[in-house]
Amino acid sequence: MIITLTGYMGSGKSSVGKELSSRLGWPFIDLDGYIVHKKGMSIPEIFATEGETAFRSVEAECLRDIVTMHQLTGENAVLSLGGGTVTISSVQHLIFGQTFSVYLSASVDTILQRIGGTDSGRPLFDVDKAAAMLEKRRPLYEKAGLTIVTDGKTPAEIAQEIIDEKEKNI
Ligand code: S3P
Question: Is pLDDT above 70 for 170?
Fold first, then answer.
């Protein structure tokens, strides 16, 4: 089984993913990290040289690779998606139909507190546009099988909540 974590930039997908993987004893995969490894370029470099459309095709290809590989081997994994992976219509059926998908819901305030004042290496992050972009994407994130409100919670608390909910669902 793959547990996918989705949510806006700065919603804690990577830190919760690592915590969850260590609690479950499952491998952790970060989709952005996988893309960087495959392309040999950083995310900002890919956006700058090839643009968002090309980035989304690589992102979709990497996600398909990971899901197919795990379906063939039957291995478990915790997979943190990028904040925009759910916007790629050709992979939505994989995320929501083939994995245990979890939306880490964070308020704009929480997001801005986490990554607002930093150069976080996220080409699409803009303090002034974060609220509108989050609202636009929210219906897609909400397609996940499970939504966890993360405001004010630690990665350890969130990971445990996911484990508890997953056990109820199986
Ligand atoms: C993006 C989110 C980023 C990364 C890329 C695009 C987005 O991932 O995939 O910069 O469109 O929201 P994180 O959510 O891990 O920052």
Answer: no
